[in-house]
Amino acid sequence: MSKTALITGPTSGIGRHTAIQLAEKGYDLILVARNAAKAIALQNEIGDSVHTDFVECDLSSIASVRRAVDEIRTRYQRLDLLINNAGLIVQRRETTPEGIERTFATNHVGPFVLTTGLVGLLKAADGARIVNLASEAHFFALRYATRKLANPPHYHDLVIYGRSKLANILFSNELAEQLAACNIASNAVHPGTVSSSFGGDGNGATAWFMKMFKPFFRTPSEAAAQIVELATSEAFEGVTGQYFANSRPAKRSANAGSRKLARELWLYTERLITEPVEASQDS
């Protein structure tokens, strides 16, 4: 029986190459993305060697993610692999209609709703894996306060992005704790600084950095290979609760290893998705 992998943000950059490499390994794919035309183009590129399915979803919208979860539950009974790949960095503050800062909403809240909503399908698989894309940018998570994540009082794109990446690691760690008894592994990975369009639009300092040093970055294909290795290799069977870079456990910040912060973030997010406006006003 072929295995099924779900990947968010598969239509460009690392996500696209990850999807293609998983297809080459024989995985059927659930492509969760906003842009139907790009998803269909990727399906055509992959061809008929594996089954590909498209589910439309805007990860910045809790309502959209919940609709996607319902759709996936209707179509599938088992999920072997979930890769939370999609992410963004917003140079100027934006707020979702649900009252949450957009970077945090897309990079953490959406994946939280998606992953927790699909736990039943992951439990139905034999040794399912969850891979959460994080970043060394989590070291930029200055003055981190859980209660202010949804509506930060000050905005600097790289700091805000770093906090969301720290949240990715904390979420991954808490998933590992909660799902260990179910034989589900959860790990976070820094794929490397990648030569893509990510973060390179606009005129801010982050965009300048991305453009200036782009020639020295890893290619999306090289970054995807690391993700696919962690997601599929027998070498990582049973490994959970780790933060990887260059295919091996990597140093993480003190906050990223905090059990207290991981649990605090989980409870905060649960409250946020129930009453997003009220929770975001705590800051």
From TrEMBL:
InterPro entries: NAD(P)-bd_dom_sf, SDR_fam. Keywords: Oxidoreductase. It holds the Pfam family adh_short. Gene3D superfamilies: NAD(P)-binding Rossmann-like Domain (3.40.50.720). SUPFAM superfamilies: NAD(P)-binding Rossmann-fold domains (SSF51735). The keyword Oxidoreductase applies. It comes from the Bacteria. GO terms for molecular function: oxidoreductase activity. The keyword Oxidoreductase applies. Belongs to the short-chain dehydrogenases/reductases (SDR) family. This is Short-chain dehydrogenase. It comes from Dyadobacter soli.
